[in-house]
Amino acid sequence: MGLLSDIVFCEPTVGGQIGATIVQLLLWSFLTDYDYGVMAHVHKYVKRQPWYPTVQENMKDDEEQLLWNFQDPGFNYVSWFQTIMHHGIAGVLMSLGMLLGQPWLWRHGMLVEVGGLDLLDAFRIAHVKFFPPGTFPTNVLLKSREWGPLMCFHHTVGLCVGIPVNMYFSEIYEFQLFGLMILGFPAICFGPGLIVKTFDKTKYPRLWFAWYMWVSLTFFLGSRTIFYFPAAWSCFLHVWRSPVGSNWKVMVPLTWALLAMSLFSIMLLAGRLNTLYKRYGKDTLHAVKRS
Question: Which chain regions cross the lipid bilayer (predicted)?
Fold first, then answer.
């Protein structure tokens, strides 16, 4: 029962972390499966809705559609729901852990990222490569030259920071808040998009402008810039000064994760500013004001 208890309560032990990670991997492999899992039913439900043709039209020139090139542009909306579900469930677990004083819940929230996304994507990529055609949508995403390197870059961050933080720092409020803001807060930033994207962007330009500004201010500028950089530096100093600061097995992956996440945040902000400039230049802003 010792190992089982470690897994259930996501104890900061090797067995507890590996076991709980596997649990999250198996759980999310079902939740996000588009053949028989929860997302299969979400996908079918969304496609039956009367507003789905509007979503398809809205998504035709969406940044992600231009990158991933799904046969049905509307699938980006379904994928968007999956992303929000991922961040939302992780955020709920982390929030409950902090509010109830139960760090094991917070650690499970962290492993939603590590096991439920990072490792799961690695297995699905391997499945596509070694047992083609693999599973949808990974087999489509891999056709994009950008997706593979981007996911490798993104997922190594979670793998390098998730387990060390769970093992040594999950009971420290500073790290708990950092994890909640990075992993859980995006659900609040992106959640309203599930409603906005069902409205025709040509008929509701002000709504779409408000949506773009909301995400730009809360996510790209707020959590990933103003909050992230001071918080990341503070967490790094805490680790450096802690008893494990001299342990290269902790410092090397953690340093890489923070550096990579910092670069990723800068790239996100730069990309967002570029998108805002293209979509809402002076002429467009004047048109929105006149409408």
Answer: 175-196, 208-230, 250-270
